[in-house]
Write a structure and sequence with these properties.
alpha+beta; 4 strands; 2 domains; four-stranded antiparallel β-sheet; Alpha-Beta Plaits; about 140 residues
């Protein structure tokens, strides 16, 4: 196997090369705790998708505003174009919510604000824009 990297000293590679999976696990868990990433938080991906990029962007911004006005108790990242901004002639914009498990163990408070934002923005959403919510997404592409 050949690994090409700009960070040859990164802990992931050093632990893999040493076959020290326990040390990798402990360091990764420590890093995730510091950054409040899973398993110490829950992530929720909100995607707006459609053929008109301006409509998609505006809907993502409106949804983010509705979340903020709803008093969301989570870190809200975005809106921003998705990493892969266009697939199959559809533009995509993302919002990511990061909810600490210690503050909202079941995620009920965040779900409540998400539902309120959906009700607030849903009636006015352009017909060409879809809203997709993915709780605990496997990937953020």
């Amino acid at each position: 196997m050949i690994i090409q990297t700009h960070q040859p000293g990164h802990y992931t590679l050093t632990h893999v090369l040493d076959h020290d999976f326990r040390a990798f696990y402990e360091e990764e868990l420590r890093s995730r705790r510091e950054l409040a990433y899973p398993p110490f938080s829950r992530l929720m991906l909100v995607e707006t998708r459609g053929e008109n990029e301006d409509h998609v962007r505006r809907e993502a911004e409106r949804f983010a505003t509705a979340l903020r006005e709803g008093g969301i108790r989570a870190t809200l990242l975005g809106p921003a174009p998705a990493v892969i901004g266009r697939i199959d002639r559809k533009y995509r914009w993302h919002l990511i919510l990061k909810c600490l498990k210690e503050e909202d163990p079941s995620g009920a408070a965040v779900r409540e604000v998400l539902h309120a934002a959906m009700r607030k923005t849903g009636a006015r959403r352009p017909g060409d824009v879809r809203l997709i919510i993915d709780v605990d997404p496997a990937g953020l592409m």
